[in-house]
Design a protein that fits this description.
With 429 residues, the chain is α/β, with parallel strands linked by helices. A seven-stranded mixed β-sheet has the order 4-10-9-8-7-5-6, with helices on both faces. Strands 11-12-15-14-13 form a five-stranded mixed β-sheet, with helices on one face. The protein has three domains: 53 residues; 218 residues, Type I PLP-dependent aspartate aminotransferase-like (Major domain) (Aspartate Aminotransferase, domain 2), CATH 3.40.640; 125 residues, Aspartate Aminotransferase, domain 1 (Alpha-Beta Complex). α1 packs parallel to α2, α1 packs antiparallel against α11 and α3 packs across α10. It contains 13 helices and 15 strands.
Length: 429
């Protein structure tokens, strides 16, 4: 496995900071960072400066659009809208590395949950009843959303194989393929031939938009002529680890032959119904939350390098924790590889898991290690938070793997293992 030196890491991070700085109307002085701590500080400072410039430049672009102003922009993105962005139209670069011949229609929303919420609520307008096939381990809030607010959809958990789950259904069949699903389930799905599915909802949040796994899923769906809607939170992986702003999307993919949507006439109205749901729920995206550097030539290369570093670090951590914390790991094999979960000596409840995450982060952070108690992933620091498995209902502590140089991440991995073993391993009488 390749190793990234601290010098190589700092040079790569300097490139990321230069990209952020170049988007400022008045770039700030930028010295080469000398540590991961400096990288993190610079990145969030530059992001704050970008947001401040945007607010100062677009002061007249209010919710009521009371004053004529110049064309609303954020980097390569251009926006047009009327009152409260209910009709927001966005023109600009794609967050996905789609083939030139792939047609798609994107509806941007205020968050990833706003995107899937609008989509599922809109589906009630076009689908009287349906079966929603969901894998164990999928995003907990999506389970909650289906059970609480999408009553026209019957959740069907895929326990063994997708073929068996499909055979147990009779209504309109929707597969929710979540990037948080276990790796074995994800791979077995892509081996399924001729699946009788009416719609695939693909939550790509935990994959890079340029991931080969996104392309594999789309190739599989195109092969079997399955309509696809990709839903995503862009807050996580699409802003170079700086959480630029809350942003989500629903991307309706149409294949070159463009027959799958027409063949299922119920679905043709789904994009417009989703737009209506976004409008009525007040879930439209905020132009200021579109990262202005997304369309820059260096953006894709830097994003790919960040993701490669995180995935390398994740593989190292999984092997190490499996060896030294074998009895205290909950799940190490998520498809995305961006985080893993640790269990306690006794069963956690939410408060206990939250406390353990906070205590470990505080103690290791005070020791100078780049770790924070934060409820997200894809950062330049390790992030810890409580986690609840929607299928088993067990609580654990999630460790989100950071983009750090190999040596520093190895040190942090060992420190996490020592702390966890000391505080969670059962004592021997």
């Amino acid at each position: 496995m390749s190793i990234e030196s601290t010098n190589a890491y700092l040079e790569r991070k300097h490139d990321e900071l230069r990209l952020l700085n170049s988007c400022l109307r008045k770039p700030l002085p930028l010295a080469s960072p000398s540590s991961a701590a400096e990288v993190i500080r610079y990145k969030f400072q530059f992001t704050a400066a970008l947001k401040a410039e945007h607010a100062l430049a677009d002061w007249a672009a209010t919710e009521t659009d009371w004053a004529p102003s110049s064309e609303a922009r954020s980097g390569s993105f251009k926006f047009s809208y009327d009152y409260q962005r209910a009709d927001l139209a966005v023109e600009g670069p794609s967050f996905y590395g789609l083939d030139a011949g792939t047609m798609s229609e994107t509806i941007y929303t205020a968050s990833g949950m706003a995107a899937i919420s609008a989509l599922l609520l809109a589906s009630a307008r076009v689908i009287a009843k349906g079966d929603m096939l969901v894998f164990a381990g999928s995003y907990a809030e999506t389970f909650e959303l289906i059970e609480s607010h999408a009553r026209h959809l019957r959740p069907v958990t895929v326990n063994r194989s997708l073929e068996e789950a499909i055979a147990s259904t009779t209504a309109f069949r929707i597969l929710l393929l979540d990037s948080s699903a276990p790796g074995k389930a994800f791979e077995s799905t892509l081996r399924c031939r001729g699946p009788e599915l009416d719609l695939l909802i693909f939550d790509t949040t935990c994959f890079s938009g340029y991931s080969g796994r996104v392309r594999r899923v789309l190739n599989w769906a195109e092969q079997w002529n399955i309509p696809v809607v990709m839903v995503r939170s862009h807050t996580k992986l699409d802003s170079l680890g700086a959480e630029y702003g809350r942003l989500g999307s629903a991307n309706f993919v149409r294949w070159k032959r463009n027959s799958c949507w027409a063949a299922r006439s119920k679905l043709e109205a789904l994009p417009q119904e989703t737009r209506n749901a976004v409008r009525l729920l007040g879930g439209a995206a905020v132009p200021a939350h579109f990262p202005p550097y997304v369309g820059a030539p260096a953006y894709r290369e830097l994003t790919n390098k960040r993701m490669a570093a995180i995935l390398r670090n994740s593989r190292r951590a999984r092997r190490y924790f499996a060896a030294v914390l074998a009895d205290l790991t909950e799940e190490l094999g998520y498809t995305h590889g961006l985080y893993l979960t640790l269990s306690g000596k006794d069963a956690f409840d939410e408060a206990g898991a939250r406390r353990a995450a906070a205590d470990m982060s505080e103690e290791l952070g005070h020791a100078g290690l780049p770790i924070r108690h934060a409820g997200s992933f894809g950062f330049d620091f390790a992030a810890t938070e409580w986690f609840r498995d929607a299928t088993t209902l067990r609580y654990s502590v999630r460790i989100a793997v950071p983009d750090l140089p190999t040596e520093l991440w190895n040190d942090l991995t060992e420190a996490i293992a020592r702390w966890w073993s000391k505080h969670q391993r059962k004592s021997v009488a």
